[in-house]
# Entry
Amino acid sequence: MISRRGALAGMAAMTIASSSSQAGIIQRDSAWWQSAVGYQIYPASFADSNGDGIGDIPGIIAKLDHLADLGIGFIWLSPVYASPMVDNGYDISDYRAINPIFGTMADMDRLITEARARRIGIVMDLVVNHTSDQHPWFRAARADRGSPYRDYYIWRDQPPGKGTPADIEASFGGSAWSRDSKSGDWYFHLFAPQQPDLNWTNPALRAEVHAMMNWWLDKGVSGFRMDVIDLIGKQPENGIVADGPELHRYLREMHEATLAGRDAVTVGEAWSATPQNAPLYSAPDRHEVSMVFQFGHVTQFWDEKLGKWKPKPIDWPRLKSTFATWQGALHGTGWNSLFWGNHDLPRAVSRYGDEGKHRVASAKALATILHLMEGTPYIYQGEEIGMTNAGFTRIDQYRDVETLNFHRIQLAEGVDEAAFLAGARANSRDNARTPMQWSGAANAGFTQGTPWISVNANYPSLNVERDRADPDGVFQLYRRLIALRRDHAVIRHGDFRLLLPDHPALVAYQRRLGSETLLVIANMSRQAVNLPPSGISAIHGRDILTGRRVSMQPGGKFEPYETVAIWL
Ligand code: TEU
Ligand code: CA
# Structure
């Protein structure tokens, strides 16, 4: 077992990667990605270097010092590959080329090198559930029924209807089967029609994906975030989409062919993951992925019928219980990921905190309760300064294919436009895709040109320059949280006990490892609340994040979003 000042403290991905740690020590001696914090970059919205209004790789390179100061260990880079951009790069037409709007392969190589010089790894987005319909494989597949690439995709000669194969809906609306005008057959796509699904039952396709992954790993990337990886075992003919019977076999085969013997990090996006099956992905001795992104805490507040377009208010006792279940399920059996937001989700502070008067306090409280749990935390760009939802009020402000599709579909089904726009304002993916707010300069310092999507109007007061200058700002708090995780094994590996489970506003838990116990309490509401008479005894000590003295008896008062983290 490693000491409180972990042996790996301060070491970065690259240093450790070169010493290639063994799977056997992962549970207690931290793997580099168990002490590190990830940071997601959505390239189009991060930093524009050439004034075309779209963020790019040179823009990212120019901002690496900001991320190095924050202390992150790796960047999850959303897709920068060649793409017609129907789904902002999640529709790839060449896995080994960079989209010219983002830069060149030389820029990409420079990003890897410059990041490594700052001890930051680059984790690529691996989008292999589907390709773009412009990928040469799909072009060949539609041009010729006899092409070897035909079977890289999923076809049928009957229109969707009653009977077999089962009818399945696409995630972006409409049927998952579209008719190919060239061959006249129907092909399968779980997302947009321009994103045909790959046929993972085909071993040649799987081998191509493995070769491509090795090509990137050999270039020096530190791992992959695997887009909708729980869908690759689908069996449309049997109505099976997520978590298919061959899924884990494919993941083990992929690991064996690409990751084995390398010290990379992998995180599979798995909307279907449950506390029961999540350990199957990340148990170290199964050799599949390091961890999954699971969405229990997100989807539990979606409407049964209208889904994300009719979100429910956050119910903290339910949310706390979900976190506690996941903490327990993966402790010692696998590894968790921790996140509030990403490029598909609303801004954390808008969804779970207070984007108004208590914006800074609630952003800090959210950061604290998330980062002091067990797992690898991920920060979505802008979260480190408490950026808020877009605040769009008209459909023409949106760019996201999912939002635009569902606007059309739901209005046709009779949903009132104001109701849809209210849902989109709360939950559209574009909430997190407005440009990064760097400064109070024009366009928040994101671009010299016209941004591809509007900058949030609050940028003059909410930007990196201002927040970083504030010792009590959001950025400085994130910095401390990241450093604490690196330095304290109890944060990485301690067990988790939820306290005050039924309290409507206080989030309270204990982490314990050996003789060390950390107590975390946060008031996640806009009202002051009192510490209940039982459940937690008197709290005395120095807050590990602010250094202030805390001395409180049961009955003591917590101000809105006040947070305490102390050693017991
Ligand atoms: O997201 C998976 C996915 O299912 C989301 O589209 C999600 O269902 C939706 O936002 C919820 O309403 C991944 C990527 O993160 C996303 O950006 C891509 O659009 C999608 O896969 C297809 O590649
Ligand atoms: Ca640009």
